Task: inverse folding
């Protein structure tokens, strides 16, 4: 008698190629739902609070820095923090 895992492998092997991507996404979804932290994150309600004026200004400045190329690489940040 085949195990459930063997039966699933056989089903995947028999899927049409066009369905493999969808099957992978669904299996990843099922796998991830076993992680309580990830599940809480994925099911958390969307943040619907308005930005304060300070937060909005900080975002405008950050986007301007990105557009102007004023960026710091992760490696530089780690080096500066001694990580």
Result:
């Amino acid at each position: 008698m085949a195990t459930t895992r063997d039966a699933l492998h056989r089903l995947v092997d028999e899927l049409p190629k066009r369905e493999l991507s969808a099957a992978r996404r669904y299996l990843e979804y099922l796998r991830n739902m076993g992680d309580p932290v990830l599940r809480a994150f994925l099911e958390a309600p969307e943040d619907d609070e308005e930005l304060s004026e300070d937060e909005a200004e900080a975002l405008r400045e950050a986007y301007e820095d990105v557009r102007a190329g004023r960026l710091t690489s992760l490696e530089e940040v780690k080096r500066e923090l001694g990580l």
Summary: Residues 31 and 57 are 40 Å apart (CA to CA). The chain has a mean pLDDT of 91. Residues 52-83 form one domain. The chain is about 65% helix and 0% strand.
